[in-house]
UniProtKB/TrEMBL annotation:
Belongs to the glutaredoxin family. Monothiol subfamily. This is Glutaredoxin. It comes from the Bacteria. SUPFAM superfamilies: Thioredoxin-like (SSF52833). [2Fe-2S] cluster binds at C32. Residues 19-83 form the Glutaredoxin domain. CDD domains: GRX_PICOT_like. Transmembrane segments: none annotated. InterPro entries: Glutaredoxin, GRX_PICOT-like, Monothiol_GRX, Monothiol_GRX-rel, Thioredoxin-like_sf. The keyword Iron-sulfur applies. It comes from Methylocystis hirsuta. Gene3D superfamilies: Glutaredoxin (3.40.30.10).
Amino acid sequence: MSTEDTNTRIKNEIESSDVVLFMKGTPQAPQCGFSMQVVQILNHLGVPYKAINVLADGEIRDGIKAYSSWPTIPQLYVKNEFIGGCDIAKEMFQSGELVALLDKEGVPRAQASKA
């Protein structure tokens, strides 16, 4: 498959859901600690998201890095916009920026407890 075809597939995946996570493994069985941390953040916030297992598709695994110009997986997208990897998602979660962004973009989420 050409780079163009792979980019089209990636773009279609990103546009198919408000929140898309390119990760190693699945939300039920993450295959790396960084992917697991982002899954835990999204699950904690009660955000519906689409997870794409890059380990199941080598073209997507290599293609997403070129697509975003970001060298690592996981990669988090909100409303078609690249947010970042694990460290950025974690920092944004801890500072409250991630919740603010989700709310600003109108992404539905379960109300997390204040505990």
